Amino acid sequence: MTNNHTRATALDWTDPQCPVARTLDLVGDRWSLLVIRDAMDGARSFNEFQRRTGIARNILTDRLRKLATHGILEQRTATSGRRQEYVLTDAGRDLLPVVVTLRQWGERHAFASDEAHSTLVDSAGNPVPEVVLIGADGIALDVDTTHVEKDR
């Protein structure tokens, strides 16, 4: 997805200068992120997304259309040739660290310490390590060691 594509399809940005706000305008609602999560977990068909999320058909139709319009999902004919399926584009796949970071935040802050929850594992079955931001010098970054420089 190019910047020109983004500008042409989403002219009413919440905050035109902020990458976080623009991203939230594209994928920041609850249902969009759950659709993206399920696409990352192998969901492809409308019915699969609906079954996994419990989302109403009209809302799911809207979210799938929006995600496809903005280049996050691609709609194509399934190998059976009878149905359409939705697959992540490169831009959609690039959201994996975002989803993993949200998941890990939820594991730390949205569950009681003794409360069961699902676990994200790698292909060998090992839990995925915590996402940590690392600076150019190899030192972990946090809100006290970063800031935003705005363009003028």
Could you name the key traits of this structure?
single chain, 152 residues, mainly alpha, Arc Repressor Mutant, subunit A, 7 helices, 43% helix, globular
Helices, strands, pairings?
Blueprint: H1 3-9, H2 19-27, H3 30-40, H4 46-53, H5 57-69, E1 73-77, E2 84-88, H6 90-93, H7 96-109
Characterization of this structure:
The protein is mainly alpha-helical. It has one domain (3-109): Winged helix-like DNA-binding domain superfamily/Winged helix DNA-binding domain (Arc Repressor Mutant, subunit A). The protein has seven helices and two strands; from the N terminus they run αααααββαα.
Helix content: 40-55%
Tally the structural domains: 1
**Order of strands in the sheet with most strands:** 1-2
- Flag low-confidence runs: 4-10
The CATH C-level name is: Mainly Alpha
Q: What would you call the structural class?
A: mainly alpha
What are the secondary-structure elements, in order, as H or E?
HHHHHEEHH
- CATH architecture annotation name: Orthogonal Bundle
**Which topology does CATH recognise?**
Arc Repressor Mutant, subunit A
Keywords: DNA-binding, Transcription, Transcription regulation
Organism: Promicromonospora aerolata
InterPro entries: HTH_HxlR (IPR002577), WH-like_DNA-bd_sf (IPR036388), WH_DNA-bd_sf (IPR036390)
Domain HTH hxlR-type: 18-114
